[in-house]
Amino acid sequence: MASSGGNTPSSGGSNLREETNQRKIKRMLSNRESARRSRLRKQKHLNDLTTQLSQLRNENDRVMYCINMITQHYMSLEAENLVLGAQVTELGHRLRSLNEIFTCLEQPIDDGAV
């Protein structure tokens, strides 16, 4: 009757090892779960960045389309402006010519008779 059921030094060491092993397993499982959550966060971040990249590319395409349309419209207006400028110059010359003719017609004719 020297043994008292679980209070022997060998069973105390066994319990200590058991607790140490359980803590180690618990820590390992906790680390695995933490790593899993970290991977999920990284994957979500990557997915968010991929979505944002796609949206920015679409927006960039729309902006480039608008820039091209505005550039074409600008070039069309610039060409029209050049034509109108040439017409203004030509009409100005014609007006001066007509004014000269009109001025000549308004002057009394001096036929030399007294």
UniProtKB/TrEMBL annotation:
Q: Does the entry feature the keyword Transcription, yes or no?
A: yes
Q: Which residues form the BZIP domain?
A: 21-84
* A single GO molecular function term of this UniProt record: transcription cis-regulatory region binding
Keywords of this entry: DNA-binding, Nucleus, Transcription, Transcription regulation
Supply one GO CC term from the record.
nucleus
Please list where the region (Disordered) is annotated: 1-46
Report the InterPro entries cross-referenced here. bZIP, bZIP_plant_GBF1, bZIP_sf
Q: Where in the cell is it found?
A: Nucleus
Q: Name one GO biological process term.
A: positive regulation of DNA-templated transcription
Q: Name one Pfam family in it.
A: bZIP_1
Q: Does the keyword Metal-binding apply?
A: no
Q: What segments bear the compositional bias annotation Low complexity?
A: 1-15
Question: Which CDD domains does UniProt cross-reference here?
Answer: bZIP_plant_GBF1 (cd14702)
What's the protein called, per UniProt? Answer: BZIP domain-containing protein
